[in-house]
Automatic annotation (TrEMBL):
<protein>
    <recommendedName>
        <fullName>Propionate 3-nitronate monooxygenase</fullName>
    </recommendedName>
</protein>
<keyword id="KW-0285">Flavoprotein</keyword>
<comment type="similarity">
    <text>Belongs to the nitronate monooxygenase family. NMO class I subfamily.</text>
</comment>
<dbReference type="GO" id="GO:0009636">
    <property type="term" value="P:response to toxic substance"/>
</dbReference>
<dbReference type="GO" id="GO:0018580">
    <property type="term" value="F:nitronate monooxygenase activity"/>
</dbReference>
<keyword id="KW-0560">Oxidoreductase</keyword>
<dbReference type="InterPro" id="IPR013785">
    <property type="entry name" value="Aldolase_TIM"/>
</dbReference>
<dbReference type="Pfam" id="PF03060">
    <property type="entry name" value="NMO"/>
</dbReference>
<keyword id="KW-0216">Detoxification</keyword>
<keyword id="KW-0288">FMN</keyword>
<keyword id="KW-0503">Monooxygenase</keyword>
<dbReference type="InterPro" id="IPR004136">
    <property type="entry name" value="NMO"/>
</dbReference>
Amino acid sequence: MTSPGWADHPLVHSLVLAPMAGGPSTVALAAAAAEGGVFPFLAGAYLSPERLAADIAELRQKSPHPFGVNIFAPSPNHPSMTEDAERYAALLAPWAASAGVGLGTPRYDDDAFDAKVDVLVDAAPAVVSFAFGWPPAAVVERLQAVGTLVWATVNDPSEVRWAEELGVDGLVAQGWEAGGHRGGPVDAGERQLHTRDLVAVVEEDTTLPVIAAGGVSDGGEAALILGLGASAVALGTAFLACPEAGTAPVHVHALTHRDRTVVTRAFTGRSARALATTWTDLFSEAAPAAYPHVHHVTAPLRAHGKATGEAELVHLWAGTGHRRVRVLPAAELARTLVAELAAAQRR
């Protein structure tokens, strides 16, 4: 069976809490955002299948509201990626040695994709979204068969047709301003459309619901993008400073104390927007397109930076609106965003 489109689904929300893998997304954050009227996502990437199942169960205990879960679809594994990551590791080695940290070993993995799909089919959340690649059609059908909507992430209008042929129920149109990894299936390393431009083009090119993401910090900005035809707007960076988020203190501090963001492969081997640091300045040009190989190389160094509060050693993911983050409890921030959106739409 095919799940209903977002616009026809009884769980319609105009604002979405974006998934933020690697720590910031927590059960507490999702529950609080839902309490405030924002549709929440759990981030399943980098978690074990067992931890993902436990988080879903805990969220259902804490909150009666529907929610989504995001996982990474497997990335390509080209033969040259390990060698490219090894060469990059050799460049990073003196940098890591000065911090007293050994680098990891480059390797490929699929983040336990099949096992996580089994968890999600069993749990049947309201929505499952995929980033980094396309899920197999059989996976889409399994999720839809239990009543789950399936969303795919796109960064370029050319990807829309692929997603439609896959049979998904919605498109997350992630613009150039978005913090964190580029979620679409092609990481060409080139500049992409800004959120408003991407939404305008994609909305004209598909009948699927479009969920916009990238650079939105308040309800007024969300209203402008909804006015372009988006069905919903996702916000991630806006929630990073909430006390319920698992964002490292060094990361929270940097959001309002640094001015520049860059899109770089320096941390994981996949293009992602982060606050500029010495690491990004020194190594962005040398970093290869090799995810997750580079991710495993740099993970010990990034973990050390988080633990010690050394911002130059941390992947400080942030969208372009990072300076406008509000340090508020997540439920209060969600209610504020909903109120701002309503006020803007009344004008």
